[in-house]
Amino acid sequence: MGGRGFWLELKRRHVYRVAAAYAVIGWLLIQVATQVFPVFHLPDWIEQAVVLVILVGFPIALVLAWAFDATPHGIVATDAAADGGVASVPSRRRSRRTGMAVGLMGVLIAAIAGGAWWQLRAPRGHPSGTSSASVTGARSLDEAQRNPGNATPDSAAKAASSGLRDDVAALPIPAKSIAVLPFENLSTDKGNAYFADGMQDLILTKLADIGDLKVISRTSTEKYKSHPDDLKTIGQQLGVATILEGSVQKAGNQVLINVQLIDARSDSHIWAESYTRTLDNIFGVEGEVAQKVADALKAKLTSAESARVANVPTTNAAALDAFLQGKYYEDHFFIPNNNKTAVDYYRKAVADDPHFVLAWARLAHVLSGIALDSGSDTDAAQAKSALDHALALAPDSPDVRLAQAWYLDYVKKDLDGALAAFAAVARSQPNNAQVLLGVGVMHGHKWQWREALGFLQKAATLAPEDTTILAELGVALEALRRYPEAVQTARRSVAIDPNDAAGWVRLGHAYELMGDPGGALTAYQEAPPGVRDNPYLTFNRARMELLQRNYAAARELLAGLKPTESLPMALIEFERGVVEQGAGNAALAREHYLRAQALQEATYKRNPNSDKLWELGYLSARLGQREQALTQIALAMREDAAKKQFSPFNEEGGDKDSMAEVQAMLGNAGAAVEALDWLLARPAGTYESVPLLRIDPTWDPIRHDPRFQALLKKYASARPEATGTRATSSTQ
User: Fold this and answer.
1) How far are the Cα atoms of 653, 657, 683, 685, 695 from residue 678, in angstroms, in the given order?
2) For the chain, is the Cβ count within 10 Å smaller at the N or the C terminus?
3) What rounded mean pLDDT belongs to the chain?
4) Which tens digits make up the pLDDT trace of 343-365?
5) Phi/psi at 260 (nearest 5 deg)?
6) Residue 467 to residues 122, 139, 348, 418, 477, Cα–Cα distance (Å)
7) Contact 341, 335 (CB under 8 A)
8) How far is Cα 221 from Cα 284, in angstroms, rounded to an integer?
9) Does residue 185 contact residue 196 with C-beta atoms inside 8 Å?
10) Dist. CA 510–CA 544, nearest whole Å
């Protein structure tokens, strides 16, 4: 059979029709698989297997179409002659030869499909001494500068892995989720690390603009290597399906950026791209990368999101370089004077490009933080000036609204305004962890703990390694009296950063509210030796011993304790007095109280404020100076009431707790119980709990009063607060 005869035979046997029908149906099935399977979080191999079966089935369908002729009378063997007679031997031989050719074509197509599937399933690798950019064929400005030492996660990542958060790992991983690992700096000049950091951050910022994507925050990815091998584990830790890796090489005016998107579940490449630019035309690369990621993950962008992703923040090379350096210093808080240096670079950026909105927004944010710490009117005015410039340029920009939210929070103490600004940004960036943190904190300041918890829990899924978010989440859980969850959250935090003494203190506090000081002491023993000897942690260990009435152990811990800025000598002397009073050494206790009082009065004269007055009230009450104590707490309450016009951060629960303690020290059971009843009837579990009231020596002066005992019984059977404002916890 000649070539023309072969094609006529294909037509007569309806092979064309079968091929066309199969192609249409197969394409539809593939579309259904790729769109529907991710919704149910089915493993990738199922989707790939469906595609493979459809591809392999195509040549099989062609062979069957050749062997059997579909006619109006049904499917019949086509070896017979058209007139119903027996086919001639030459005809059957030609048919077999052509059928074999079609079969071989089918086998070839199936082999190609199988090879492609195997390639997609094969794990990617980083050969020793070669960066991922080389593996994907990207060009390098200087191959000799490649850094091969990226095969294993660093110690911080291992520490996080050792304390793997079960609640994060157990959550279903959305297909449209991504983490951007730190970009590797391949430049000969290691001082260009800021440039690699900055490009990663710009891409991350663009991705966070896409509401259809779950994007893990920078704080949760910065502890990983640029190109780790075990991406499956990292993907599980971070709760993402894909990971973006990258490297940046800057030499003079030339820049090479390599990026690759990897499926963390199968450890296979999705795509890789190289961008060779100069500093004068590098603008917009971050938007191009973000758009490619969105396309690869089939993320749907609104028109506003598309505009923000495509927006180029500046076309001034000097301004961009200064901005990236400013962001580097802002993010690296451990560098001395990092915020002041960041301000200098941001000022240079806006001087080079006065229309650089993002630089104005970051400048306003950093200046607001400086004003919060300093309390200086000059710093506050500078923050307002930077914010006004940003608002004038782009009042609806999410970056500007976020800067405005922090300004209202830090400088103006305008809780309602800050919450409204944060909420506006959250609507346009629903997966921005820092925005969700801001909304959660603002709700917490308004004692809307149920709402706060929801935002903080979502923020923690987007930034599972961010200990700041975990700290705020722990406060919300304690407020709602969900103490076992608060313990779990604090344990997540110390697993991420075992050297953070504050994390261990938060863990101990959660145990304390559960009425389990022994559990707190056991937990403290798990801290690294250097952290265990931290002065504040030592102070809290003494407190836990005191709650167990182990006075000798508490005395020993406090004996050699040196004061620090956050742990003044007045507080140490006060606690020593409490220990001696509990041990029955009244005269020695009075000596400690008098020393603490003298120190505290001197501090108050230098810096008069209500906090110092409350502490003076405690001391006066312990010394039996009844009228003086009542006068001091009344003055403190008046100052707090006045501050509430300006400061939403003065939480009324703190007043009630302090009032109850002072009244108990003075033996005023009625006033103390009234304040405690107010606390226990509300989500104020971070201040007091029934288990703690049962064991804390503070309440010994009124412990046997019937009103105090009735209070304990009233709230003994309550359940953890879940939906309302009434306390509801059995472990309350």
Assistant:
1) 9, 9, 10, 11, 20
2) N
3) 80
4) 999 999 999 999 999 999 999 99
5) -145, 135
6) 36, 38, 32, 23, 15
7) yes
8) 23
9) yes
10) 12
The amino acid occupying position 296 is A
Q: Are 456 and 707 in contact (CB under 8 A)?
A: no
Q: Which of 587, 590, 562, 558 is nearest to 575 (CA)?
A: 558
Per the listing, tokens 């350096």 go with 325
Integer angstrom CA distances of residue 604 from 147, 268, 495, 592, 670? 56, 63, 39, 18, 30
Quickly tell me which residue has 């994907």 as its tokens: 136
One-letter amino acid at 413 equals K
Domain boundaries, the chain: 3-121, 132-307
Question: Do 187 and 145 contact (CB within 8 A), yes or no?
Answer: yes
* pLDDT tens-digit series, residues 443-474: 998 889 999 999 999 999 988 888 999 999 99
Question: Amino acid identity, residue 490?
Answer: A
Report d(CA 48, CA 25) in Å as an integer.
Answer: 17
How far apart are the C-alpha atoms of 618 and 457, rounded to whole Å?
36
Query: Would you say 184 and 130 are in contact if contact means Cβ atoms under 8 Å apart?
Result: no
Of 653, 732, 640, the residue nearest 444 (C-alpha): 653
Q: What kind and span of H or E run contains 178?
A: strand 177-180
Q: Show the tokens assigned to 423.
A: 């909420």
What is the 3 state secondary structure string of 587-615?
A: HHHHHHHHHHHHHHHHHHHHCCCHHHHHH
Token pair for 30:
């593939």
- Is the Cβ–Cβ distance between 430 and 211 less than 8 Å? yes
Do the Cβ atoms of 235 and 169 come closer than 8 Å? no
Cβ atoms of residues 52 and 113 within 8 Å: yes
C-alpha 539/C-alpha 532 separation (Å) is 10
What six digits make up the tokens of 535? 């002065």
Q: What share of the chain is helix, strand, coil (3-state, %, to 5)?
A: 65, 5, 30
Within 10 Å of residue 677's Cβ, how many Cβ atoms?
A: 17
At 100-149, the pLDDT tens digits run 554 555 555 555 555 544 444 444 443 333 333 322 333 333 332 333 33
Burial of residue 454, with CB atoms counted within 10 A of its CB: 0-12 exposed, 13-18 middle, 19 or more buried: middle
Are residues 244 and 259 in contact, defined by beta-carbon separation less than 8 angstroms?
yes
Nearest to 490 by CA among 449, 731, 478, 672: 478
Instruction: Give dist(CA 510, CA 253) in Å, integer.
Output: 54
C-alpha angle 185/186/188, rounded to 5°? 110
Residue with tokens 């004692």: 447
The three state secondary structure string of 629-686 is HHHHHHHHHHHHHHHCCCCCCCCHHHHHHHHHHHHHHCCCHHHHHHHHHHHHCCCCCC
pLDDT for the residue 89: 45
Length of the chain: 732
What are the tens digits of pLDDT across the range 264-312? 888 888 888 888 888 887 888 888 898 998 999 999 988 888 998 898 8
Distance in angstroms (rounded) separating the CA atoms of residues 660 and 675: 5
Residues 6+ apart with CB under 8 A from 100: none
Question: Which of 3.90.1150.180, 3.40.50.1820, 2.60.120.1440, 3.40.50.10610 is the CATH number of 132-307?
Answer: 3.40.50.10610
Query: Which of 203, 205, 238, 206 lies closest to 221 in space, CA to CA?
Result: 238
* Alpha carbons within 13 A on the beta-carbon side of 649: 11
Q: Which of 173, 162, 215 is nearest to 459 (CA)?
A: 215
How many other β-carbons are positioned within 10 Å of the β-carbon of residue 487?
25
Cα–chain-centroid distance for residue 607? Answer: 37
Distances (CA, A) of 79 to 42, 94, 95, 104, 199: 45, 10, 7, 19, 67
Question: What's the per-residue H, E or C state across 477-512?
Answer: HHHCCCHHHHHHHHHHHHHHCCCCHHHHHHHHHHHH
